[in-house]
What we know:
Layout: E1 2-5, H1 11-23, E2 27-32, E3 37-42, H2 52-55, E4 60-64, E5 84-86, E6 89-91, E7 97-101, H3 108-121, E8 125-127, H4 145-158, E9 162-165, H5 172-178, E10 181-184, H6 192-201, E11 204-208, H7 215-227, E12 233-237, H8 255-262, E13 267-269, H9 271-275, H10 278-291, E14 295-299, H11 317-333
Parallel strand pairs: 7-8, 7-14, 8-9, 9-10, 10-11, 11-12, 12-13, 13-14
Antiparallel strand pairs: 1-3, 1-4, 2-3, 5-6
The structure holds phosphoenolpyruvate and manganese (II) ion (MN).
Manganese (II) ion is lined by residues 103, 273, 299, 309-310.
Amino acid sequence: MIVVMRADAKAKEISDVIARVRANGYQPHLAESDEGTIIGLVGESEVPLREDDYQDMAGVARVERVKAAYKLASRAFHPRDSKVPLNGCLMGDRKVLVIAGPCSVESRTQIIEMACAVKEAGATALRGGAFKPRTSPYSFQGHGEKGLQWLAEAREVTGLPVVTEVMDPGLVPLVCQYADVLQIGARNMQNFTLLNAAGESQHTILLKRGMSSTIMDLLMAAEYILACGNQRVMICERGIRTFETATRFTFDLNAIPVLKSLTHLPLIADPSHGIGLREHVEAVARGAVAAGADGLIIEAHMDPEKAMSDGRQSVTVDGFIRLMENVRRVAEAVGRTA
Ligand code: PEP
Ligand code: MN
């Protein structure tokens, strides 16, 4: 349920509503809207939700039930776009921000070279996995903490903030020491222990959609993090499993406008995993930006054929430079920059 205050509501009237929400056993969640302050009721209480408790209070414009199971992630609770700070910019603002780098951190020189290259091309943040979720236990699993140290060195050289995956709730504190943004991967989107640990860290989170998860599942997963009081959450469409075998996954372009309408959270598109084919990553990136994505996450590699993971979908440095130029044109065509 939300209580929408009138635009001219006095501070005392707002605090009276907040006090009654608390007295009824709910946590109040405050957001601003064009109409006025919105007070969302969160949590469980023995006192049932009753419109009558708030409807006639001074300064209240209206009281509304929120049917969706997700609350803090919803536009009803939080009508305005959330903006998440990243490298002096805001993800969710007018500029489309690009996170780029290799799938895996392979060596110290590799990650530093790639960081310099993607920065030069206009990336806002560096990606690279140190803990890799691999389908086969025999595949390269990542360099672990050494990889995190190399990422931190690459940040020192370039100034680019680091986005890297954490797979284990017990490793959240370690990854937080090195990373600016914790990535929760598709395979862990519903690892609720991990979502809680990431939420509690109060670190910025990039939450990727599970490959077999619905849009609703993704929003509920985001809700776990938000419910920990962590508002710095970015969500990511990275492709879903369909019957199609010509591409690695099926990038769900539909999810972009649908998510933008349902949630205020900044939305990133991952065309690399979404299609899995280097030669088509740029086309999907352009489509995602045209459809309203706030950011992109792109896998790029100096020598993709020799990459230790996801080489087939990694663009070359030249490919990344071209992608940036063309995405910029599309961004401008839809009233944004890149
Ligand atoms: C990745 O970003 O390299 C990755 C493993 O992504 P996802 O979790 O979307 O598969
Ligand atoms: Mn990858």
